[in-house]
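Researcher: I'm comparing several assemblies side by side, and this is the next one on my list. It has 1232 residues spread over four chains. Same procedure as the others: predict the full complex and return the structure.
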Amino acid sequence: MALIDQNSSGVFVISVTPFDEGGAIDWDSLDRVVDFYFEKGATGLTVLGMMGEAPKMTQTESVAIVKRVLARAGGRPIVVGVSAPGLAAIGELTAQVMDLGAAGVMVAPPGSLNTDPAIHRYYGQVVTQIGDAVPVVLQDFPLSTKVQISDEILQRIIVDYPSIKMVKHEDWPGLNKISRIRAAEAAGQRRVSILCGNGGLFLPEEMARGADGAMTGFGFPEMLVNVVRLMTAGEEAKAQDLFDAHLPLIRYETQPGLGLAVRKHMLARRGAIASPALRAPGAGLDARAVTEVDRLMARLQTRLKELN
Amino acid sequence: MALIDQNSSGVFVISVTPFDEGGAIDWDSLDRVVDFYFEKGATGLTVLGMMGEAPKMTQTESVAIVKRVLARAGGRPIVVGVSAPGLAAIGELTAQVMDLGAAGVMVAPPGSLNTDPAIHRYYGQVVTQIGDAVPVVLQDFPLSTKVQISDEILQRIIVDYPSIKMVKHEDWPGLNKISRIRAAEAAGQRRVSILCGNGGLFLPEEMARGADGAMTGFGFPEMLVNVVRLMTAGEEAKAQDLFDAHLPLIRYETQPGLGLAVRKHMLARRGAIASPALRAPGAGLDARAVTEVDRLMARLQTRLKELN
Amino acid sequence: MALIDQNSSGVFVISVTPFDEGGAIDWDSLDRVVDFYFEKGATGLTVLGMMGEAPKMTQTESVAIVKRVLARAGGRPIVVGVSAPGLAAIGELTAQVMDLGAAGVMVAPPGSLNTDPAIHRYYGQVVTQIGDAVPVVLQDFPLSTKVQISDEILQRIIVDYPSIKMVKHEDWPGLNKISRIRAAEAAGQRRVSILCGNGGLFLPEEMARGADGAMTGFGFPEMLVNVVRLMTAGEEAKAQDLFDAHLPLIRYETQPGLGLAVRKHMLARRGAIASPALRAPGAGLDARAVTEVDRLMARLQTRLKELN
Amino acid sequence: MALIDQNSSGVFVISVTPFDEGGAIDWDSLDRVVDFYFEKGATGLTVLGMMGEAPKMTQTESVAIVKRVLARAGGRPIVVGVSAPGLAAIGELTAQVMDLGAAGVMVAPPGSLNTDPAIHRYYGQVVTQIGDAVPVVLQDFPLSTKVQISDEILQRIIVDYPSIKMVKHEDWPGLNKISRIRAAEAAGQRRVSILCGNGGLFLPEEMARGADGAMTGFGFPEMLVNVVRLMTAGEEAKAQDLFDAHLPLIRYETQPGLGLAVRKHMLARRGAIASPALRAPGAGLDARAVTEVDRLMARLQTRLKELN
């Protein structure tokens, strides 16, 4: 199967993991949501990300999910989140999923890293552990990881570890980080693919500054796909109009600790998964929040009609 | 001068502190921005908040700012942020500003508080230090303070310290927190005023759940005023339309560490302050960000015309 | 096999996991160090703790280590650390090790818990996940977990979850916590066993305040055993003399991120394990530190002779 | 008055600030404790450090304390802690105390700094604010500040800001940091003075690795003075014997949040201050802890007699 590389672009949706109300993996819904993402135009998927509830899986479940999604994806690229507290576990899972046909692995820095050299050293250890033939996505998400990666050390990591092919960019604020990476490349640094996260909250600006697309989730993944497409085609105003229409919902989804429940609710409402249930300790939306999201979904439909 | 109380409502704008390019306080602009806020419909102001660059002032400057704003405010209520690492400094500044005519003081919890009882104890110490005749705004802003205040301990604080008249609500996610405070009041707990922060990012939902208004800043404070007014009048759809129109800019302002520069840029563009300069170590917007904000401001004008 | 209960006492040594220089588990040394701990008087062992390098193991290795230690322990109680980012993984490992004959499991709170109710809720979820027939050791180690457990919430947890039989006490400072738990018990609260950690740094005071023993590691575990024995026998001065003799080394071992390398160096010097190697990303002692530890070990021998 | 420089050595005691039971500054005790420190052999003092309860003072009190101590010190060097949330406050206090005759100022990094370049930039801003004629002590104390300064960035700061003359070294573990600074100097980097903190917990090893002395506090400051003197004279065994005798108390004092109460209790017992009271929100020792410290103080006297 094709691997991701420094020119990968488009939208890699961070896939949810569907559960039934009892907390068991809902394999049919997993198939269905994979289909749904690709029908809406996704280039690829990323499984076992934070919003895929990865840390709640057992190792056996993790591998089974990757297998199932790969089988369903029909050859389209699947990136697998392999972040774990220890290098041995990262190495073991990486070997398994690359054997199965994954397109690359994603690694976020553990929260214990507290200096620039420690972050740099860590990615060196990861690359040593998994081998430099495996394409790596560096997930740069300080709000969640508590690890702030400076521009300087990110560039040293990029220069020193060529198997890091992509940055999942979700520093916040991070628009300048994109501009600085592209400026460094203009000055001769090797290229990395930049796919943006944060639920797409800054996607138009990120594309304008040189991002290659998005790697994030949202209840309406077609928005991500179309904004990336329109921005790539130079249709900035249309892209922003479409983005703005979805923004009240994007914003509602950015609530930390609640966003995934919002996203799963939208996906369930749209028929992409059977139940919006999260595995414990996650909790679903209460009635009041359901009303709020449903109201915003209805307004979105009205607004989309106005735009057409 | 009137004090804030448990029924205070409307919009208390978190005032910026204008500086010239050299970092000196621009007193004329301070007068001008006070006028601007009130012309746009503010009920009151809050000075020396985080977004007022309070920690960058000397104590002498802090008092001078309060004096100047009180003189300009013509009797409208001015809340003063007095958060400081030590109780003695909080006590001293509180005594000074209440003597000058402030309507109350705002206190955020210091980052060292790491258990519920420690948070509770702290507010007890604050009330003892400043005396229970001074109305207190409890600022609940975990993203910035790193102190998470649980519903349970917030309710114990409200019950035990009656001089805490208001919660500046900017937990995130925090919609349920509002619902729970109002539910507790329905069950007999004493009332507190809830004014919402976070740049207004969830203002329509917050008002619908029982907030009394907003205490936050934004380059277009009239949006805050009008959303609060429309929601109070039951015109939810109109409120949301107006809110949605500003949302691309609100979102742009939520970038931590960058938001104040965005806000000051908008205020300077609108003539409310002479310079968008921040005092060091703050930095202004670079050229690229200026372009992005200006584009969003232009789009806002277009959208507002469509709505009228 | 016997389970731990609320009256468990003595010394449960936190076992190291021996590796060879290449990072592979050294099974012979694992047998040898188990023997060593029991020869020095340990009541039981705790495996897969933080200082057992648990997060660096794969799940398969974790189970294999438990099996090996149980086989070697000859029926003496083995507690297993099962802390993991997700409840499913905790449940799976717990079921496996309890089936194999473990005496109980140890669970530290994940760093994401940031309010008292969240900590309480978490232990409820753990007990639900693993079943209330499994004896649980609550590891209270804020310096490492970043989770501060207040006296109040610890007592609510003890009251609400009877299968939590033991507190591994290593809050720092935490002497009062022991006194308060014992005071609550005197007032009718159910008893828990308290075994102390922190490398034994406050062991004499902890025993005097009502601790039942130690659950920690040190290059000279016989010190832990003898201090607990002497304190229990009321021979406070002898206990303190013995403790003081080891204190320069205990102190040297308290260096965060370095302590395990110090401990393994001492164990290797004493023949309890073949190599002091840590698994990556851990690093061993440099030459200078080796000299410092060796000097302190030599001084200890001299001092012990003076005492006899 | 003489300023500190890159060759400053000896013991700068971190002075406590004595209060009466009501929380008012006890000026007579301040004089007395200054005399006490110098009688015990201190080279200089550092006032308004964390253990001087600096954040609990008003600005007026801070300046008054500096004046009083300078008047009493008879020309011996006094360093002043000026850490504050904002640069303007740092600048103002620095100007005041240097005018009064301070020997230099001490600045710890604010907790908001989360990358190596941010830390570097901050010290640049501090030097710009206060002017490069003022000698600066960089306080490197991650356990308290939450800011981890890597060896690499510390060296860049030393190279780029020549007015930083001294490092108050209390990283933990930090022995290698001393060795690396001295190695860099051997390779041509400009010299800095290194005075060690952490209550002296690693003082013998720190001196052996090239520290110039101590800048910390302890109830028995003569231990710091004599260990530094003996180590400088090459009498390592004697130094370590003396150190070991005090170690049970040093250890007891390392309890975070409790250590200052322990220290003040010892100073009050020894007649150096009238009351062990801390200013709120600090709390004194309870009866049980008093008993524990008194017991250790008595044991110390016995042990010192054995050594002589």
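Model: For your comparison table: The mean pLDDT of chain D is 96.
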